[in-house]
Please model this.
Amino acid sequence: MDPMISAAARLLATGDVLGALKRVALCDDGPGLALRGIAMAQLGDVVRARALLKLAVRAFGPQEALARARCIVAEAEIALVSRDLAWPVKTLVGARAVLEAHGDRLNAAHARHLEVRRLLLTGDLDQAEHLLAELEPLGLAPPLRAAYELVSAGIAIRRLHTAAARAALRRAENAAHEAGIHALAAEVERASQVLEIPAARLIARGEERLLLLAQVEQLFASAALVVDACRYSVREGNTQVSLTTRPVLFALLRALAEGWPGAVSRHALIARAFRGKQADESHRVRLRVEIGRLRGEIRGFAQVRATGEGFVLVPRQAPEVVILAPPVEERHGAVLALLADGEAWSSSALAIALGSSPRTVLRALDALAATGKVQAFGRGPACRWTLPSVPGFPSTLLLPGPLSSG
Model:
């Protein structure tokens, strides 16, 4: 290999991006273009980086399959960082197979790590955990080992296994210091902050207080009946019922939980669930129907009994009914939760991550932009959305993918 290319590669590996770029700035062969693309990506110019990597793939030619596969992995990482979730995953899987066939275990592991990060981003925790289990962290170089532990921590955080998350973050911190890459150490530090700032509000008997993620985990392990307004579900111990697709039922359940242990009037329930200013006979009939449906959904946890004025929630075994709500409740909270990572998202990537239609996501973005809560830059397919400022709370409980019931 050309000594200049080797020197640039070593500098990139240690985080000296400008030093590497100086050595390959005028190179127009395959290796030079690839290193320039990676360097530009690390400097934040992802558009130029992707263009250079595409040129590198063509420069290497079909006979240099290993080099082409490495470029594809680099392009996949840029797509992930720039939240281009429509980038073809099958291309990355094919590149990983080529790397494994040629014995390039380091880059093959990196490719698998990118697959896992994408699955984590879209909420497919089971598949992410399955793929991650196929990697052996002890055999990885320090930068990739730190990345492995960061992903492990991310999965643990999303499953509310905070002790496992802390252990993984400590290992990530050690690996980042061993690698000597300051940006990687900063990423580990940012990830660690998620465990130290409020993640949710606990509402019980008319009082509220903020909870850390560890306290949310303790709440789920308690005997309380938890009405989870972050995930639109109700749970008691290891059993939970999702009401994500039944917003009216969840609105009724939350209103009953807020009024517990007392009853809630029919007028208040109608106003809450149906947004009716004045209850007429049709509203009362619909309320009876929806209460019947709610009884069926939560029959394993509680009863909904009629009173003279309204209805009351009566737990079967739980000694207490509590509500778990986001630190700040917003319309389109799931969109804001994804944007809270500080990256620039396309509307199509948000739709993929949320499992919603692009049109629904665009309507949400337009509504949020009208109130100044999000901002856009670029036009057409290049349009990206960000928050004007990152909120001071983590978005773990609002992100796609179910929390662990165990």
Summary: Residues 225 and 236 are 5 Å apart (CA to CA). The first strand starts at residue 200 and ends at 204. Residues 333-398 form a domain with the Arc Repressor Mutant, subunit A fold (CATH 1.10.10.10).
